[in-house]
Amino acid sequence: MSVTLAPELAEAIKESAERHGLSFDDWVVAAAELKFRADDEAAFFEEAEEKRRRARLLEFIDEFFAEVGEPTEEERAAWRRHEEDEERASEEYYARMEAEGA
Questions:
Q1: For the whole model, what pTM was predicted?
Q2: Is residue 2 part of a domain?
Q3: How many distinct helices (H) and strands (E) make up the chain?
Q4: Number of domains in the chain
Q5: 45 within domain boundaries
């Protein structure tokens, strides 16, 4: 495998590798491993934050309905129709954009 680096970056890696007693290749491998771990941890924390947001939203919705009452079947049906209309409009929009080559 071959990778092209900016000369300044290659020099910085070389200097850092020497300070840490590593070969250039070993330093690059270690950096890549750290990046993969960081990405995995970031994804884990993002997922945990998303779960917390959803839990807070569900708590808010429960409190709201406890205060004003649950929606009626008619209200639920109207909302479902609204969601279906929005989904259909979105699909039509993206189909037009694709047909126009956008």
A1: 0.47
A2: yes
A3: 3, 0
A4: 1
A5: yes
Q: What is the DSSP string of 23-40?
A: -HHHHHHHHHHHHHHHHH
Instruction: For residues 45 and 39, give the distance between their C-alpha atoms in angstroms, rounded to a whole number.
Output: 10
pLDDT digits (tens, 9 = 90+) for 60-93: 999 999 999 999 999 999 999 999 999 999 999 9
Does residue 47 lie in a domain region? yes
24's CB contacts (< 8 A; 6+ apart) are: 13, 14, 17
Phi and psi at residue 20, to the nearest 5°: -100, 5
Give the range of the structural domain holding residue 33, as residue numbers without chain letter. 1-53
CA-closest candidate to residue 28, choices 12, 44, 43:
12
Residue 95 lies in a domain: no
